[in-house]
Structure formats: structure tokens, C-alpha cells
Amino acid sequence: MLYFIELTQVCNLKCKYCGNTPDPDVDDVEVSYSLEELKSFLEKDPEPNICFYGGEPLLRMGLMEKIMDSIPAKRFLIQTNGILLSKVKPRYLKQFDTILISIDGRKETTDYYRGRGTYDKVIKNLQAVRELGYSGDVIARMAVSGRSDIYEEVKHLLELKNPHFDHVHWQLDVFWDFPPKRRYKNRDFVKWVKESYNPGITKLAKYWYQKMKENGNVLGIVPFLGIMKSLLFDEIPVQLR
User: Fold this and answer.
1) In 10 A of CB 56, how many CB atoms?
2) What DSSP string runs through 173-220?
3) What integer pLDDT is reported at residue 179 of this predicted model?
């Protein structure tokens, strides 16, 4: 089983779309159980997989290291904004099976939503990680918003060479709306979906297919891979989101 350990709700970025914007009336949630309690709980699972989450989990790097030293997990993963990624000690870095990095595509899109200079910092840190010999799976985790061109953002990330991302995944920023689904009937949002997002997905699918046709290379577009697997193996998705 995959267990998410939310090390902190504090973040060192203030993204325009994020539901994690600090609220002075809400206390930060920190890990309140002991390492022994966590270890005892996870021992019930013979093959636990642990994903460090936040907030920005690397703000509590010391706690993360203690958990990795104490828990013999089958796999470690982390979802990070990448700002502190180069600070992770190599011996811990190489224990990660997967690193998910929040980045929204091209530089202008990422910096608009996540803050000026974010794109360059993240790319620089990923390059440092690759140069240290990290060979695990690196997934670009995009938030897609009104300024995003889904085709251009995904294509940009897939075509980066040094450093490179192994996979690209995304979600729409409406995920953080409150009340939930409040924009689903908003005229501007509906127009964007019809005129930009849906045509961009179609264009992206054609690009994905063309690359397979040209050289047999299956690009790591996570939503497409899941759909293709279901079609090839005659699987019925439990739920479409």
C-alpha cells in the first residue's frame, strides 16, 4: 500500500491557484506521532510504500531523514516543488524510487503561477540531482490553469534533454476551488475548456501517436499511458476523473 506522510502544511512558495495559501486562523498540521508509533503501524504491511507530502515536505528534511533511516519501506517517493531538492543528501536522494516535481510547463507559465525565478531554480536543481547520478523516475507534476496551453506546456517538458523528465502528469486548477466545482458552469472556464484545453489534448494525442509511429518511442504522458493500458488489456476503469 502507498502511505502519504504529510510532513508539514507550510510551503515556501505562494502559487496563485494553490489551496495551501496560509490562513492565520488555521494552525499548521505537523506530525504528532513518534517514529516508533509510525514504525509499529507500518510493520503491519509487509511492503509499505511511503510518499512524503506537504506543504513542502523538504522544509522538514530532518524528519524525512529520520523516517527513511527508521522505516524499511519498499519504495520512497516525494512530491516537492523542487526549490530545496539540491539540498537533499545523496544517500537519501538515491533511495527515492520516484520524485514528483511541481512545474507548470514553460518558463513563462510556471513563473506566472508559481513566482518569478521558480522555473530556473527548479530546472537547475533537477540538473544537479541528475548529475549526482539519480536514475529514478522523475515526474513533472503540472497544475493546468487558464493561462496554460496544455499542448505547449506538456511538449516543452517532454522535450527537455538536460535535465529530462521521465513522465508528465497534470490536473486542472479547479481541483482547489472552494466551494468545490464552483467554476464548472462558469462561462469563461467552459469557453477555455472548449477552445483551448480540449483541442490541446487532441493535438497532444496526435503528437504522442506520431512519436510512436516515427521511432517506437512511447512518451511518458501519464494520463495517456493509463488509457492505453486499459485499452490494450481490456481493463475497465473503476472511475473516470
Assistant:
1) 23
2) GGGG-SSTTTTTT-HHHHHHIIIIIHHHHHHHHHHHHHHHHHH-----
3) 80
What average pLDDT score do residues 158-181 get?
90
Task: Report DSSP letters for 51-115, one per residue.
Answer: EEESS-GGGGHHHHHHHHHH---SEEEEEE-STTGGGS-HHHHTTEEEEEEE--SSHHHHHHHH-
Class of domain 2-180: alpha beta
Gyration radius (Cα) of the chain, Å: 19
Give 233's DSSP letter.
T
Main-chain phi, psi angles of 160, to 5 degrees:
-65, 140
Domain spans of the chain, in order of start: 2-180
pTM equals: 0.91
Summarize pLDDT for 20-30 with one digit per residue, the tens. 554 444 455 66
Instruction: Write phi, then psi, for 77 (nearest 5 degrees).
Output: -135, 160
Q: Does 229 score more than 90 pLDDT?
A: no
Cell numbers at 213, concatenated: 509511429
> What is the grid cell recorded at 229?
493500458
The one-letter amino acid at 132: L
Beta bridge partners, 49, equal 2, 75
